[in-house]
Amino acid sequence: MAHPFFASRQLTPNTYVISGPGCDCYLLIGDEEAIMIDSGMSEQNIRAYAQSLTARPVSRVINTHSHFDHTAGNGYFDVIYGTAGISRSAKNTMGGNPADYPLDYTFTLVRDGDVIDLKGRPLRVIELDCHAPGNIAILDETNRILFPGDELEAGQVLLLPGYAEQM
Q1: What is the rounded CA–CA span in Å between residue 72 and residue 5?
Q2: What is the pLDDT of residues 38-92, one digit of tens each?
Q3: Which residue from 70, 40, 73, 23 is spatially nearest to 164, judged by alpha carbons?
Q4: Residue partners of 82: CB distance under 8 A and separation at least 6
Q5: What is the DSSP string of the chain?
Q6: Around Cβ 95, how many Cβ atoms within 10 Å?
């Protein structure tokens, strides 16, 4: 589905990659609802776009780390998951105008080994603590897919020691 700000492609029958400003995000569809992994950096409502891809409700997002290119759209969701390390600096706009983004939200904290229940699709939290403080990967145990955030990608991985973690 094309959109002025977002594009998507289906990876599996119940998994989409959503591309837009910031990072690639993922929509995982379970038996009763769907969940996002990361929320990109668009000022536009990525939740509404994700909802256009499925009839199941999309109300939750998991952040793989705190960098704003992965967290700027968090405020569009009802529930935001992240570690304590992620929650400390996820609202750092890294030079962007804070008024352009929905930043009025709180985190539901997760830890290494926690399982986020997406009915029929358990998602295990694996704390890596490498790319940014408290960063995580998400293991979709049912489909055997790992979502590692910026830990593994085809392009380069930028390490921003301390800059993105400042508030």
Answers
A1: 14
A2: 999 988 999 999 999 999 999 999 999 998 999 999 999 999 999 999 999 999 9
A3: 70
A4: 62, 63, 66, 90, 107, 108, 109, 110, 134, 136
A5: -B-SS-EEEEEETTEEEEE-SSS-EEEEE-SS-EEEE---S-SS-HHHHHHTT-SS-EEEEE-SS--HHHHTTGGGSSEEEE-HHHHHHTT--TTS-GGGS-----EEE--TT-EE--TT--EEEEE--SSSTT-EEEEETTTTEEE-TTSS-SS-----TTTTT--
A6: 7
- The model carries a pTM of 0.89
